[in-house]
Amino acid sequence: MTQHQPLIEELVSTWYQTIPLSQFMQIEVLSFTDAINLPTNIEPAASRAEVPLSKISELITTAPLAPNINLHQTMFAGSIYTLMTLTGWGMVWLQQQLASVTGDIVLADAQVKYIAPVRQQPTARVIWPALDLSPLARGRRVKAELTVELWCQDVLCARFCGVYVSLPSAK
User: For residue 168, with 0-12 CB atoms within 10 Å meaning exposed, 13-18 middle and 19 or more buried, which class applies?
Assistant: First the structure.
């Protein structure tokens, strides 16, 4: 994550300044990998064939259990939803930064399935679907359908499917 550390810090700062709940929840980025930083031993022409898509561009976030706990001593469903929503939003924001385009990101639609109780600090993971963001530079909106999974060690606890729309920024 060191190459993108300034970008990660800007993302977390943006969350904390514009969505105060994210700071109270203590959401943080654990890791970010992107398609630009493929392993050096892979030939460019073969990179997509040899590297699973799930390893090409991924954002992993977390939030501690303590400030997000409910009366059952598990993570509050609203905190789970918020963590997964911001993980998806953060991935769109990071990809826009890497593509040098700007847009106002909104969550247009979402569904969440709560699968198992969250009894320990979870990780939320999202994979970028190699979507072209260049229409933003031409004043067109971009739609990204993302799946965010919430894990507690090896147990899948929730799955979030969100449609994020990035609208060209009015300048």
Answer: middle
Q: Give per-residue burial for 123-155: e unless 16+ CB within 10 Å, then b.
A: bbbbbbeebebebbeeeeebebebebbbbbeee
Q: Report the amino acid identity of residue 126.
A: V
Q: From the centroid of its chain, how far is CA 71? A: 28
For 143-162, how does the pLDDT look when each residue is reduced to its tens digit (9 = 90+)? 999 999 999 999 999 999 99
**Residue 20 tokens, joined:** 């105060």
Does pTM surpass 0.70? yes
Identify the residue whose tokens are 């911001």. Answer: 86
Report the C-alpha gap between 9 and 164 in whole angstroms. Answer: 22
Residue ranges of E strands in the chain? 28-33, 58-62, 103-114, 123-127, 142-152, 155-168
